[in-house]
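Q: Give me the 3D complex with NDP.
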Amino acid sequence: MKLKGRTALVTGGSRGIGRAIALALAAEGADVAINYVSSEPAAKEVAEQIRKIGRHSTLAQADVGDYPDTFRMAQDVLKEFGHLDILVNNAGISSDKTFVRMDHASWRKVLAINLDGVFNCTKVFVDQMLKQEWGRVVNITSVIGQIGNFGQANYAASKAGVAAFTKSLAKELAGKGVTVNAVAPGFIETDMVRGIPDKVRERLLSQIPLKRFGTVEEVGRAVVYLVSSDGDYITGAELSINGGLLM
Ligand code: NDP
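A: Here is the predicted complex, encoded as structure tokens.
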């Protein structure tokens, strides 16, 4: 097992990609805290699955866009686990509209959760990672942050911001035992993608060289790679998992 003895927190671990990341980390031996904002039953189910395979899991409810709430959550997680080795900033939302129709509230909401959320969660754990001279931070970005998308100015800006944050923080922390990387999924089969109308799905599939959407498990395995010793020499990277959509 590649992560035996490690502790992790996955934001947005109750559903979709975050759920798969949490289960993949636990399968490699990590104890995992599951952050969520409102889906308590779903988060409980993930924690239960992790406990069934003999790992420790705890629920960590907080709105990552809210700094005081995130700070409170971090204190609870550190009390429960004693320390945190791996932080996966996965929580994210979209609120799509063409720019002309996009109001300020929708811009702020997406930026608050997707970008401020990454700042907030990293900020509340980084001192402890620096103190123990070991830490792994993985931020989930998106191919949309790399290429932009019609109707997603807020989402694309938030993800491009996280990618730039990743590289800056990687440079600052590289000499201190903490690596910071990003994983940029393309279109992955989750609630977010299942809502796409059939016609648009077909058009998207025609643009993907591997001719399918990705699976959440494929993203989970990439995160394990980056946070295990296999990824020790990788920092500041943005690993694309997009079926060749962008190359
Ligand atoms: P889902 O909509 O399936 O799940 C979103 C998760 O984020 C849920 O666990 C949700 O918690 C949590 N969340 C939402 N808002 C907050 C908040 N304010 N505070 C804490 N947690 C919150 O999303 P996906 O699995 O599809 O996406 C996960 C990440 O991957 C996102 O960052 C997304 O941008 C990115 N991504 C997704 C792609 C895809 O194709 N699906 C492609 C590229 C990137 P709760 O259950 O409580 O609501």
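A quick observation: The domain at 7-188+216-239 is CATH 3.40.50.720 (Rossmann fold).
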